Amino acid sequence: MGLRATFKYLLLLLLSLNLAASSTFKELEAYPNSLAKDYYIYRFLSEKNPSPNETWQLLNQIQNINPRLLKLIGEKAEDKEFKKAVKCLYLDSKSFWNEDEECMAIRISPSLLVTFDIEKREILFKKLNKLYKGEFEWMEPLLHKEPFDKAIKSPHFLYLYVNVGQNFRKNYFDKNIDKQTLINLSKEVEFDLFVNKVVIENSHENVAKSLLNLTPKDINVMPYSAFLLGLNALMHKNSDLAISWFTQSLQNSYYQSEKDRALFWLYLSSNDKSHLQKLAQSWDLNIYSIAAKEKLDEEFFEILSPEPTKEKKSNYSVTDPYTWRETLRFLKNNADKNLDNFINSLYTKETLPHYAFAKERLSGYKEHYFIAPYKEYLETFSIDRKALILAITKQESRFIPASISTSYALGMTQFMPFLAKHIAKEESIKGFDLDFMFNPKYAYRFANIHLNYLESWLFHPILVAYAYNGGIGFTRNMLTKENLFKKGEYEPFLSLELVPYPESREYGKKVLANYIVYKKELGERVFIWDLFETLSSPDALHRF
Fold first, then answer.
1. Would you say residue 45 lies in a domain?
2. Is residue 28 pLDDT above 90, yes or no?
3. H helices within 202-255, ranges in order?
4. How many CB atoms lie within 10 A of CB 483?
5. Cβ distance 241 to 208 under 8 Å?
6. Integer CA distances (angstroms), 25 to 58, 71, 73, 404, in order
7. What is the count of structural domains for the chain?
8. Whose CB among 357, 387, 439, 465 lies 3.0–4.6 Å from 508's, allowing a Cys bridge?
9. Are 197 and 232 in contact (CB under 8 A)?
């Protein structure tokens, strides 16, 4: 299989591709393709000993393939070319030079190439360019001791900038870029990623200063890039330019939460309370709108916390991922029809999460349901711990017990299999199976245990949320190595926007908003501006 054919094959694979832990191949085959089935295929491949033929047949039944699953199939499949392609795709740098040119071509990337000395880069370029003429021209600027001058004149500059890695960017690509070049670059697809790297990493001072030459009249960018360019201007003491970028972000944003973020920063950068007043009227419940309402002493959002009396819906399993999959499909496929009867049938204690999910969806998320289902498993916890667990669980899964993520995080509290197994072993839970995580009792119990660990290091709900989502290692590195959550102008708000990992950045904000609401609902109100103030005192936040 040639290089182009191999790439095409892998690309097609990556794009195309009432349950219990299935024990046989035939049982798995009987289920419709779904994320739930993907999870059980993953378990079958990792826990059983399928034949190469069975593995190959299951490959065609996967809905969403991820690296973990792809590696498993590569290990067990019989097709030699496929096995080689998967092996090469995940080759480590130490093994790289022991492989043939085809394997090297599959694996090489800018971030890997710059780990080699220039002599080795030249050798590799000659090999690959000879066999695959024209496909590796992007490598040429990286063959020089001063690669920026070559790269900036190359059509591959943005590709290289985005993909060489943070340290290489900082050491070799942090140079002044003239205004016309930036205007030309803004027309390329990767310009938004480029702006993201420059502003979020906040370590490319020369490039960041170059961006100050651009105004909204010069270029048209995505709303988030306009917002980041506003932050960049603020960090360089240019509030007028920041206001112009935040205004463009506000005007071009589609989602209400994005508009609210722009309004909040317009207020911070201008101190014009009219922005705060407009923000306080937002229907979207987020940290920005909560802060505006609190600052102006406006009435809080209407919170819906229904408590049904009926115990359960007949012939409905809340712990079965396939049942939830069918429910979700039904809601999506009948979005334009009258769903009242079906949704009302979900109004039970056991299916309250499913009811709230459907009602919020039907309202366009303008109704705010803050439920506390399965609260019998929370009775022994403090109010603060209840609020934090509920805030996290709402964000993780909206309390759907049988939730499965594309990375196979499981249950209401979305535990990764390795962490669930670790806690089960520590707690000596006999006969533990990963499907236990679909039981609300275990979901809450495991979350409480994990939060005990996280709160032994962290003292603020948003930092705990970062660690819950991105891991304690990520959070430790962020607080010790990044210049975040320190005293300074526009803090802690700048730090909230500069958290390096985008998923954790937005996750933390949403959990904090949920936490504010649940504390209020549980009768122990906390104010968001007090929590902001605490974030500006890092010595009180962590023990690293």
1. yes
2. no
3. 205-211, 223-235, 239-252
4. 11
5. no
6. 9, 19, 14, 21
7. 2
8. 465
9. no
> Quick one: average pLDDT of 41-62?
91
CA distance 33 to 43: 15
Q: What are phi and psi of 368, to 5 degrees?
A: -110, 100
Give how far the C-alpha of residue 410 lies from the chain's centroid of Cα atoms, to the nearest Å: 16
The DSSP annotation for 369-390 comes to: E---TTGGGSTTS-HHHHHHHH
pLDDT of 160 reads: 98
Residue located via tokens 């039944």:
61
Q: Is 279 a domain residue?
A: no
For residue 317, the tally of other CB atoms under 10 A from its CB is 17
CA-to-CA distance for 533 and 515, rounded, in angstroms? 16
399: left (phi over 0), alpha (psi -120 to 50) or beta: left
Nearest-5° angle of CA 304, CA 355, CA 379?
65
Expressed as residue numbers, the domain containing 519 is 367-540
Q: Which of 538, 410, 405, 526 has the alpha carbon at shortest distance from 463?
A: 538
Of the three residues 53, 69, 89, the one that is the final residue of a domain is 89
- Rounded to the nearest 10 degrees, how much is the dihedral formed by the CA atoms of 231, 236, 240, 245? -30
Question: How many angstroms separate the CA atoms of 493 and 407, rounded?
Answer: 30
Question: Which pLDDT score is estimated for 543?
Answer: 58
pTM (predicted TM-score): 0.93
The alpha carbon of residue 419 and the mean position of all alpha carbons in its chain are separated, in whole angstroms, by 18
Which whole-number Å values give the CA distances from 382 to 22, 466, 527, in the listed order? 39, 21, 18
Domain-embedded: residue 66 = yes
Q: CATH number of the domain at 429, please.
A: 1.10.530.10
Bridge partners of 368?
303
| Of the candidate ranges 277-281, 329-333, 439-443, the one whose mean pLDDT is the lowest | 329-333
Instruction: Give 411-433 pLDDT, tens digit per residue.
Output: 999 999 999 999 999 999 999 99
Is residue 483 scored above 90 in pLDDT? no
Q: Residue 69 and residue 46: Cα distance in Å, rounded?
A: 9
Single out the residue in 49, 65, 89 at which a domain terminates.
89
In a domain, 416, yes or no: yes
